[in-house]
Each structure stands twice: as structure tokens, then as C-alpha cells.
């Protein structure tokens, strides 16, 4: 048992060092990033597309922000699942409130049964565009953008080697739900990973229309469960890449309970297994982040039962250093991204002693929740997403098997809860 304890101890501390180095690389990129100001006359005409199903907690804020962009020539294209959807009235009211003349709202005309509802909406919206649009930008209903969002998203596309640009989301937890804290904790590692692998986030994403045609992305979306994870591999085949824009790390203040985060993670992990270009890296990261700490706890308890105090002491010290190191890493990431968040005029996470204590407790909880979600995602083939049931056989064999229009009865009791 002592040899196993030494192995686990070295593994924990080694993985901690690796995580710290990768996070510092990410933060260095964020701190050294400088956006380029492009004159208005050089900015291409853009279509901003948002696909809606259900009334997301901050949907009015999202739509009003998208309608008030510091960008000379763009239109907002809203596709709502159905006219009976509660999001329809919110979208209509938001457009009327600002008397926006550059916004159009449509319902989903054709519900495809071999891809996700979101992909159906994207295909419809993009197919309806005329040739004057040179860029398509995507936003999610949980994204509250700042006034320069579209300008900063489109500007890097002037580089002929960049086919798509993206940002990412940053959760700000409250003390109300442990699920929100688990999601926040896990997302810190996800943000770094997505940057390192060049993985885009569909909630803030822009693609040149010529790239959409050149790569056949619409045809691929017509048989896909999601739109973003496949993009790096598709672009790579055409000599293009995805550009991450640090100023587009968008704050998300929605809530999530533990059941909700498990269902989300199951869906996300299945989606990643289907489309992530470095899926094996996710598996190895999970082994390092979930298996080693859990095994350390188990062996620690066994060594206590066998009165092997030296083994127990070694594991206790290693696990404590590892967990405190992760807490320090979370704090460094939070502080490192504060300038980005403050530049958007938003407050970040309040780092009180009580909050840091909860963050410390959330570290092992996050490992166990992610471990449970990863194990259960291995054998699931049926996914429920916003009330829609899909059966997934492979990356290009998706079946929508149960559909109903979204209504107010589908909304969570807590109005701040993520859908």
C-alpha cells in the first residue's frame, strides 16, 4: 500500500503543477492580448443570430444588449422555436422597446429530425441571408454582451488565416445553490482547456460566410447535435483556425442546482465524445483530476483502518497540498480575469472568507459530480435538452424522437435557474 500511496502522492502533486502551468499560459495570453481598432468602413456587414426556446433568466438583457452594438452595419436575426414559446413575446417586446429597425424575428419553419433543434434554427437563419452579409455571429440566450462585443468578435476575421472567432463564458456563483458553485469550479478548467485546444463556444462565435460555404458547415450541422465543437477540425482541413478573443469572456449569473449540473454534464460529455477533436485529452484530464484524488481518499481511509500512520500521513499531506493548490489556482484565475470583467462594467465574484471556504469544499464535490457524470455518459444514448428528447447513435446519426412546443409550464420555479 505504501508504493501505491507514493504513486498517488506524486501523481497529485505532478498534476497540480501541470494545471498551474497551463493556467498561467492562459492568463499570460489574456493579459498580453491587445484588440485592434478597425475603422467602421472596413467592418463587414454582419448577421447576429440567436436561437431561442424558453425564456432564459436574463433574455431581455441579452436581446437589448445585442440590439445596442457599437457596429455600423448589422442585423439581429431571432429564431424562436414556435410563436407560442414564451421567448417570442420577450423578443418582440425587446425589439419594440428599442424601436429597433435592424431586427427580425421568425419561428422555426421546419423541425429537422436528424439534428438538434438549434442546428435546425441556425440552418434556417443562415439560409435566409442574402449575399450582402459577409459575417455570421452567433449568440446564446445566456450571453449578455457588452457594446463592443460584435466589433471585437468580427475584427480578427480580417486575417485570412482565421476562419472563426470566439469567446467563452465565466460563471459567477452565489451562495444559493451548490450546483452553481460546482459549475463555476469545473468551468475554470474548461475555459483553459478550450483555449489550449482552440475550441470555440457557440454562445459567442463568428464565422465568415465564405467559410460557411467553403467548408460545408451547414450540411454538417444538418446531421449534428451541436454547432461548435466540430468547427476546429473542419477549419483545419481548409488551412484555417479559430481565434480566441479574451475580451469576449462573458459573465453568466444564472443559477444551477446539483441535479441540473449533472444533466448538463452528461449532455456535454456525450457531445464532447462525439465532436471534440481531442476527446482522449479530456479522458486523461478526467483521470488525473477525478480518479487520483478519489483514490487518495480511499487509500487514506484504508490506511487508517490498518493503522499505517505513515501512509495515511503521506496521503493527507499530499491531498491537502493538492486541494489548497487548486483553491489558490481558482483565486489566481479569478483575480487574473477581473480586468476583463471590470472592463465590461460588471462586478466579479466576491472573494470573502466564507466564499473561499465554500470554494474549498466545492473542489472535491466537483470531482465527484464530474466523475459521476462522466461514468454515466459512457452508456447513455438518449438525451433530454430543453424538453426535447434525442436519440444519439453516432456523431452523424442523430434522431429527434419527442418534440413539444415550449410553454410557461416548462419554466423552472426559480426564475434565475438555467434552462
For this entry, give a set of tags.
alpha/beta, 10 strands, 419 residues, three-stranded antiparallel β-sheet, seven-stranded mixed β-sheet, single chain, globular
Chain-wise SSE layout:
Layout lengths: L1 H31 L13 E7 L6 H8 L7 E7 L5 H12 L5 E5 L9 H11 L7 E5 L9 H6 L7 E10 L6 H20 L6 E5 H7 L1 H5 L9 H6 L4 E12 L5 H18 L3 H27 L3 H35 L9 H25 L4 E4 L2 E7 L2 E6 L17
Parallel strand pairs: 1-2, 1-4, 2-3, 5-7
Antiparallel strand pairs: 4-6, 5-6, 8-9, 9-10
Structure description:
The structure is a single chain. The protein has about 425 residues and is of the alpha/beta class. Helix content is about 50%, strand content about 15%. It is built from 13 helices and ten strands. Helix 1 (about 1-30) crosses helix 6.
Mean pLDDT: 90
Provide the spatial order of strands within the biggest beta sheet: 3-2-1-4-6-5-7
- Given as residue ranges, the uncertain stretches (5+ residues, pLDDT < 50) are none
- Distinct helical segment count: 13
Bin the helical content: 40-55%
- Estimate the strand proportion: 15-25%
Alpha carbon gyration radius = 22 Å
Order of helices and strands: HEHEHEHEHEHEHHHEHHHHEEE
Please give a quick description of this structure.
By secondary structure, this protein is α/β, with parallel strands linked by helices. It is built from 13 helices and ten strands.
Amino acid at each position: 500500500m505504501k508504493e501505491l500511496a507514493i504513486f498517488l502522492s506524486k501523481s497529485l502533486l505532478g498534476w497540480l503543477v501541470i494545471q498551474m502551468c497551463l493556467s498561467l499560459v492562459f492568463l499570460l495570453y489574456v493579459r498580453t492580448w491587445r484588440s485592434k481598432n478597425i475603422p467602421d468602413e472596413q467592418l463587414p456587414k454582419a448577421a447576429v443570430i440567436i436561437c431561442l426556446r424558453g425564456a432564459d433568466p436574463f433574455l431581455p438583457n441579452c436581446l437589448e444588449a445585442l440590439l445596442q452594438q457599437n457596429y455600423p452595419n448589422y442585423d439581429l436575426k431571432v429564431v424562436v422555436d414556435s410563436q407560442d414559446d414564451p421567448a417570442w413575446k420577450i423578443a418582440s417586446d425587446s425589439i419594440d422597446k428599442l424601436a429597433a429597425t435592424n431586427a427580425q424575428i421568425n419561428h422555426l419553419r421546419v423541425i429537422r429530425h436528424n439534428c438538434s433543434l438549434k442546428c435546425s434554427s441556425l440552418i434556417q437563419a443562415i439560409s435566409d441571408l442574402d449575399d450582402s452579409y459577409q459575417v455570421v455571429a452567433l449568440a446564446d440566450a445566456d450571453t449578455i454582451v457588452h457594446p463592443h462585443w460584435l466589433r471585437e468578435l468580427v475584427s480578427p476575421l480580417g486575417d485570412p488565416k482565421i476562419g472563426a472567432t470566439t469567446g467563452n463564458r465565466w460563471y459567477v456563483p452565489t451562495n444559493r445553490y451548490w450546483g452553481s458553485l460546482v459549475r463555476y469550479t469545473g468551468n475554470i478548467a474548461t475555459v483553459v482547456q478550450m483555449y489550449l485546444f482552440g475550441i470555440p463556444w457557440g454562445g459567442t462565435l463568428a464565422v465568415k460566410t465564405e467559410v460557411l460555404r467553403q467548408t460545408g458547415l451547414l450540411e454538417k450541422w444538418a446531421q449534428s447535435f451541436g454547432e461548435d465543437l466540430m468547427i476546429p477540425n473542419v477549419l483545419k482541413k481548409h488551412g484555417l483556425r479559430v481565434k480566441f478573443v479574451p475580451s469576449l469572456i462573458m459573465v453568466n449569473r444564472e443559477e444551477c442546482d446539483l441535479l441540473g449540473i449533472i444533466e448538463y454534464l452528461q449532455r456535454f460529455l456525450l457531445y464532447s465524445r462525439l465532436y471534440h477533436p481531442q476527446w482522449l485529452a479530456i479522458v486523461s484530464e478526467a483521470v488525473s483530476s477525478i480518479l487520483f484524488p478519489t483514490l487518495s481518499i480511499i487509500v487514506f481511509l484504508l490506511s487508517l483502518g490498518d493503522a499505517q500512520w505513515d501512509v495515511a500521513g503521506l496521503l493527507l499531506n499530499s491531498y491537502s497540498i493538492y486541494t489548497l493548490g487548486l483553491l489558490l489556482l481558482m483565486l489566481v484565475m479569478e483575480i487574473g480575469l477581473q480586468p476583463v470583467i471590470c472592463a465590461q462594467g460588471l462586478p466579479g465574484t466576491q472573494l470573502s472568507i466564507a466564499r473561499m471556504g465554500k470554494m474549498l469544499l466545492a473542489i472535491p464535490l466537483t470531482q465527484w459530480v464530474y466523475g459521476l457524470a462522466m461514468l454515466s455518459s459512457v452508456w447513455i444514448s438518449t438525451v433530454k435538452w430543453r424538453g426535447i428528447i434525442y436519440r444519439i447513435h453516432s456523431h452523424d446519426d442523430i434522431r429527434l424522437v419527442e418534440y413539444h412546443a415550449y410553454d410557461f409550464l416548462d419554466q423552472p420555479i426559480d426564475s434565475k435557474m438555467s434552462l
